[in-house]
Amino acid sequence: MITFETQLKKLKYLVLKEVAKMALENRLNKEELDKIPFEIIKGDKAEYRCCVYKERAIVYERSKLAMGCLPNGQVADEFVNVEDDDQIIYVIDAACDKCPINRFVVTEACRGCIQHKCMEVCPAGAITRAAGRAYINHETCKECGLCKEVCPYNAVAEVMRPCKRVCPTGALEMNPKDSKARINKEECVNCGACMGACPFGAISDKSFIVDVIRALKDKKNVYAVVAPSITGQFGSNVTVGQVKAAFKKMGFKDMIEAACGADAVAVHEGNEFIERMEKGDKYMTNSCCSGFLNYIEKKFPDQIERVSGTVSPMIAAGRMVKSMDKDSVVVFVGPCTAKKNEIKRDSIKDAVDYVMTFEEITALMGAFGIDAEECEAIATDDASIFGRGFAQGGGVIAAIQNYMKSKDTEIEFKPVRASGSAEIKRTMIMAKVGRLSGNFIEGMMCEGGCIGGPAAMVPIMKSRSQLLRFSKESTKKDVVDNENLKKYDGLNLER
């Protein structure tokens, strides 16, 4: 049985499931869509917001985004389809709470001291005394934070919108007209950090769930390529073998571990690293995290040549499936929203047709009436311990180190691990100025790696132990031990 960590996760599940059922039953139209808010929000007592009318309005906008349309707050016969839009993350205006925007505020802890360091240090002269306490004039405040740093009582609190605080590129902005959040598409890397941070669920990702259902209904050869972080996502007692059985029940031809592609990537990227170092390159980064790649393109474009030219495990596995079945439809399943953006890159869009998150797959199973826990497990052993380890921070490093043990080389592998946007920014700055402490950067946009992805069903604290157990179950104890690597012989593993 699926359990939900938050009510927000449950609400998102219910909306996705209803849209999926509509698609399965060939009743995906405006009339049926109008019914969803009343199916989910019953009665006249509000549970989440000020009133049921607002709750239903939000559900309606969620439903539009779930079916691949813009959540623009408008009721119309013709919805705005966002299928061809490279943007993945959208703000649901109806759900945005317009969080407080005064970044620095003086709390009750202020003692009204006579030293008043906060006033002395303020470059804008925005701090005065009123009623014996410090007061910040937000009309002139520059939000530099110096007052917070010097206050001996820690009486200055920093209040920042959760979505804005976690955005690695500053793409999350405030609309000056209505104080609602908005996304600058030019700066957004579609990492989904804001989606996971918003406590009101006002930010969400567009879905391909309808497209996948149509492919299944048309009896196409649909393959699921699943991220190793899938373990534990459908209940602590559900094995990956049971998940594979659930996919088959839904009509998927097969389920393949993306970790097998990770083994191939470790080999290719390891060889690439050796070649680059022999040529005199100072450092190289991984390329498996699409959020990290997008970040470098946006914020460190002069360092883009240092990024590995190797494809991600998702693309490697997708190309392998396509080489074995020319009629295949490949669906990647993982916790990452940036992967939905990655498959649109011109050089690699031949490999994967759709991306679905764990949230969406959970809803798809619900629409089919399938409980993975009740399925009989099917043997799953596609990848090595190290390939499965790609799902957590340090996993890429460990896999390349393991592969390089089999190589006769004098090149020293000196990795630097960067997990989360703050570490990535710090590491890339050091790399740019020539002060990096190593020669290989493993960058993971999500803290802790993919298991900390924004569309995971369970928190990282629970999934980490599940991943470790799943990895140890592999019969392939070294990358080069994976006999499935021969399936990648002759395949193009360049981006």
UniProtKB/TrEMBL annotation:
Q: Which Gene3D superfamilies match?
A: 3.30.70.20, Fe-only Hydrogenase (Larger Subunit), Chain L, domain 3 (3.40.950.10)
Q: Give this protein's Gene Ontology molecular function annotations.
A: ferredoxin hydrogenase activity; iron-sulfur cluster binding; metal ion binding
Q: Which PROSITE patterns match?
A: 4FE4S_FER_1 (PS00198), 4FE4S_FER_2 (PS51379)
Pfam families under this entry?
Fe_hyd_lg_C (PF02906), Fer4 (PF00037), LdpA_Fe-S-bd (PF25160)
Q: Which UniProt keywords apply?
A: Iron, Iron-sulfur, Metal-binding, Oxidoreductase
Positions of the 4Fe-4S ferredoxin-type domain: 101-128, 132-161, 179-208
> What Enzyme Commission number does this protein have?
1.12.7.2
The molecule here is called: Iron hydrogenase 1
